[in-house]
Amino acid sequence: MVRLNVHALDAGGHGIARNPEGKVVFVEGALGGETVEARLLRSKPKFDLALAVEIVHAASGRRVPPCPWYENCGGCVIQHADARTQVAAKQRWLEDCLERIGKVEPESMLAPIYGPEWGYRHRARLSVRYVEKKGGALVGFRERRSTYVVDMSSCEVLPARVSALIPELRALIGKLSFKDRMPQVEVAVGDDAVVLVLRHLLPLNDEDRSLLRAFADTNGVQVWLQARGPDSAVLFHPEGAPELCYSLPEFGIKLAFRPTDFTQVNHAVNRVLVSRAVRMLDPQPGERIGDLFCGLGNFSLPLAARGAQVIGIEGSATLVERARLNALANGLTAQFEVANLFEPNLAPLGPFDKLLLDPPREGAIEVAKSLPEAWPRRIVYVSCDAATLARDAGVLVNVKGFRLAAAGVVNMFPHTAHVESIALFER
Questions:
Q1: Which among 73, 76, 155, 384 is annotated as catalytic?
Q2: Helix (H) or strand (E) holding 271
Q3: What is the pLDDT of residues 3-37, one digit of tens each?
Q4: Residue 384 catalytic?
Q5: Candidates 2.30.29.30, 3.40.50.2300, 3.40.50.150, 2.60.120.1060; correct CATH number of 88-116+245-426?
């Protein structure tokens, strides 16, 4: 055991300290400003990993985690910090990445975007493992530092209706013929529907089908089956079930999606994020705006609703088709095209007055490098990885002549170390 003074939180939600010899120690379960007694977990040449066993002096932002499985579950890592402490740590990490990686500093920091802390997760991939010694099927997130599935019967970050299904799912899976060949259940929640996608590695028999129908009817959910990759997922029961959708009330828009499509997990925060992005981009009637990595139209359609001429570009042909159908269903005009944005050629579709970028974790470095001097004059960049945003910001500011007018964090995933952010670049 060693006593440590923790001075900050890192990107993974660990406290940062130094041992008596001056070596950096990352301390699981500790917060900045705390003194803790810690047990060494692993020693590496440049740093150690430790676990806080006793809190000698607690930070003002510490709280008792409400989840009974928190100590073991890897789904959340900072429930022991209140919302303000979590977001402040994420904001510091964003600022640090921009300065250290991109060598840029925003002219102003935006107020963080908050949302509900609990019951927010409308998408989740729950691991499944059948363990006879533990009484049957386990359904939930994986344990910390382990591939084992947590022996849990509820989850605070899932919607209450879905959390209540965990014991029912455990009982159901224990009766299925393929119970030991079922690696996961994907959860997707829309405004009017709950979908469970069961990944199965063996065919179903008649008894399995009967059990699944009864489960869906009793619990008022849709059961989908996925035998191979995400595109193989198909509705099993009930037939003719309503499609999944989520709404953006400010814009009068509803977006339909399949349970395996990419959508934001936190619908409440997504509404605020879309609203802020549209205000920052300030679309005007007739302006040509490119929405790169547009997905199923989450930003494209609100921009089109403000009268802009929107062209959404996405690498997935499936999502492009979904975006086109969503535009049609909402009575909006927008163009959607399939293109590889990791090897971009925007010239045939340009010029654009403004761009919205919402790339995956890899970022949009090739897009940033390919932008001409003449356009666009404004970019709103929505990021799910602070490091790649910072890297791309360095190119946009230091090479392409933009200024970083503003940046801020979006707490899309409370209680995790995941940092979403939004930034505004202008010529």
A1: 384
A2: helix 267-281
A3: 999 998 887 789 999 999 999 999 999 999 999 99
A4: yes
A5: 3.40.50.150
